[in-house]
Amino acid sequence: MHAFRSGGPTLAVLLGCLLASLPASAKSGLELYGDIAQVAIPGLAGVASLATKDYDGTLQLVVGTGLTLGVVQGVKYAADTERPDGGARSFPSGHTAAAFAGASYVHYRYGWKWGLPTYAAAAVVGYSRVEADRHYWYDVVAGAAMANLIAYVVTDRFDEDVVIVPVLDLGKHDFGLLARFRF
């Protein structure tokens, strides 16, 4: 049976187990979580896809994550905005984009059952970046939105019966969900 369709542990639980086994650091636990989870979320999604022999999905994850990171780095260097702590290239958040690349892939490929916990884990990455004074909230939202949009474009549904897409309109400060259900 397909791992994303079974009652097995979610990626968020696996990520939590990984983080619990790490030694203490000079960084706060939340900041350390953000540093690790930006890689662990797409990494665990890739491992799960490979373990279930979903090679098409794995390729879509690699392409989507690669495109996301490329676009984010291009925008970072073009915008060259100052970070809250005085550093350079704040906009958009690369940590958040990487985490949301994995979470969005899981959502669009395998549905909300698996997407929701990975979105929650990715949202904590974004929160960690703001809390650590490395990004502003809008850097985090932009990184998440870029990753989500790219995943939406490059990821095919494993199950096409339900599609739910988050929508963000920065100009009007609105957000919502679009949903399509096939019976």
How many strands, which pairing sense, and closed or not: the largest β-sheet? 2 strands, antiparallel
Low-pLDDT runs = 5-11
**Overall strand count:** 2
Order of helices and strands: HHHHHHEE
Given helix and strand content, the structural type is mainly alpha
Overall pLDDT metric: 83
Question: What is the overall silhouette?
Answer: globular
Q: Enumerate the strands of the largest sheet in spatial order, edge to edge or round the barrel.
A: 1-2
Number of helices: 6
Fold and architecture overview:
This protein starts with 10 loop residues before the first helix and ends with a strand. The model is unreliable at 5-11 (pLDDT under 50). It has one domain. It has helices at 11-20, 29-51, 55-79, 94-110, 112-131, 137-154; strands at residues 162-169, 174-181. It is mainly α and 183 residues long. The relative contact order is 0.16. The protein has a two-stranded antiparallel sheet with strand order 1-2. Strand 1 (162-169) and strand 2 form a beta hairpin. Helix 1 (11-20) packs across helix 2 and helix 2 packs antiparallel against helix 3 (55-79). It is globular, with a radius of gyration of 16 Å.
Key phrases:
mainly alpha, 9% strand, two-stranded antiparallel sheet, single chain, 2 strands, globular, 6 helices, 183 residues
